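Example 3.2
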Amino acid sequence: MRKTPLLTLLFLFFLCSQWMHSASWIRVNQLGYLPLSPKVGVFISDQPVELSHFSLMSVLTDQQVYRGVPIREDGSVWGMKGAFRLDFSAFKTRGAYYLQAGGVRSPSFNISEDVFDETPDFLLNYMRQQRCGYNPYLKDSCHVHDGIIVDHPSKSGTYLDVHGGWHDATDYLQYTNTSANAVFQMLFAYHQNPGTFADAYDARGEKGKNGLPDVLDEALWGLEWLMRMNPAPGEMYNQIADDRDHRGFRLPNKDTVSYGLKQGRPVYFVTGERQGIGPHLNRTAGVASTAGKFASAFAMGSVIFKEIHPDWSAQMLQKAKEALAFGEARPGATQTACFVSPYFYEEDNYVDDLELGAAAIALAESDPSDLFLKKADYWGQLEPVTPWMVLHEARHYQYYPFVNVGHYLMVSQGDEGLRKKYLAYMKRGLDYLSGQAANDPFRIGVPFIWCSNNLMAGALTQARLYSQESGDDQFLVLEAAMRDWLFGCNPWGTSMICDLPRDGDSPQRPHSSYAVLLGDNTSGGLVDGPVYRTIFESLKGIELKQTDEYAPFQNGLAVYHDDVGDYSSNEPTMDGTASLVYYLSALNSFCGQDSIQCDEAGGIIRFNSEQPTVYLMFSADTHFEGAETILKVLKERNIKASFFLTGNCLRNKAFKKVIQQIVDAGHYVGPHSDGHLLYNDWTVRDSLLVSKSLFESDLKKNMAALKPFGVEASSVSWFLPPYEWYNNQVVQWSRSLGFKLISLTPGTGTNADYTIPEMKNYRNSDQILSRLWQYEAENPNGLNGAILLIHPGVHPDRKDKLYNRLDEIVEEMIKRGYSFGRM
């Protein structure tokens, strides 16, 4: 045997070790991409790499659907030796896909108009969790004795009822500046996109509808607190508690921190001067920043609640005017107060707050003299661009809020001159960000100071509003890059919102008492986000509690850790989360709108209830004997319907001819699972009976069985689960494969046609139709938008086949004024 020289062995060992320790990754937006939006993945490698092409692959078929040319980038800013942008914007077909390049596969993602649906309401989970006073998450109350006034010239030491509001983050301090901004942002989101929010919770944050969208319930919670923090003209309070709060992890209803008071916590009066009741003082120079924020929140509240609570709306408008006048009389910024250490929110600017307050009052008042619009213009000209965008740096909360929505209100209300001026201001800020982003493979121009994700949310808001108002699309790539960053197209490959997406990589160990003490996540919370490595290394008190899963990606410009010990990058913030509500609501297109109704699990159960259109749906597994009868009626009546068929049905040779006729006739044909699986327990709905991998493989088989009939995956978007039984997890799994899960309209009852006489729930066809017409009579919208399920095949023991009466059903519905729609 010929022996290999030692030098060769050493060389081979070196190559092998290099291969074993080198790695590449493809980062994508795990939530998904909008069909008409820029769509880019980013390939990074810790070794030099050559890529000639990349492929977009179908999840359902594992076939290439698009081939592109990678764009080389400099990855050194993120500590990478290889980086490429994988641009597949030209591909617009909805479905589930993954990217493949250099032997690396990305996580799967969707391309669909509805990938961001329900996300604004998901953020509200965290807002409810942060509630002070009554906390619906804990089913208990906290800090009900707030507070004892400090720093007031005559009222110090007296009690003021300021219970309520939200805790700022993991600490339990409460600030007017962040809370007022949160209120404004949520009200603004509803003002801009009222049809995108659901009503699933009541005013206390408990499950149950109360006739008000949940985003308004949450905003009201904050507005009521702001009213308490501004009890009279010129009497404002800026915060509750101080940094004595920072005593480790504890639940808010078991807060043991003492402030040396008989009860409650200190509530700080807005003095307009340097402030602090301990050894450290802030640099407060006026009241305008706080007063302006009060004014904007109250004014927007007046706009939104004008029809709902007109008396309160008028009261809020008056308080907004009083707050603005107070701020104008004492210009300057109010900073938060500290006690133990000289660290506080260092807000320096205030003209943006006065501009926003005045512009919001103009919106509420509709004053023909334009008095408040002129005031807003005076202040707005003094700060054309939010300073952090120009400087690419800031101290902690130095320029706050991180976006000036006042500029947008000037654009939307002003004459052509004002419109052009303020659009130019908005564009200038985006130009600065775009310039900073040009040399980053992820195209991010936001500085990685503390709360970089909050800056990202602000920049996204400005980009969306500018594009919407100007029609200028030059920042769409920048906007998409920042959006994608928040959902996983970043060096760490993680979303920055806890538990979103459910099946992706997202923060699971946030810096939160709920995580440490209860083992729960802060679902919906936007974490602080990456910070410059130099900032992280200078911080005290950070101690990572586990091995860093993102260690290979910490050698670049900024670091991020999904670790409870990292308060700098992994702590969710209330105001950052609220600030993202507008942007995500602007991307919503489906569930939550007036035209679509979903059940609690997220399945679509009804279309537009204002339109007299009924949707006929037929599902089949092993029985399909009535298909020809149904097809004949549909043809004679010129109706297009929807058929959902299992693999068992599609592979049955006896059914192939009629299935092909259904497809050729132009009816929708979609999947119903391959083996007609039961996904979750009948009695405990949240208990799954299948794994995600089994669910996916089963649906892929179902789609493969559809293909011989000419039904391509790209034409299929609706999925009917077997037994019409599912939970939210199944809905999410469906979306991950590019499907919208649909079901029947509850209460219509036609689905009972599967029952046989031996069953306790047996219904004959007369009973079924009687129930259907009774449902129509009792429902305010009748059968408008209803989805009716009829089985085209039933057990032989059922002799009374409802499908034989389809023509009778159609005739009666036409008499009652209904038409028929195809999904």
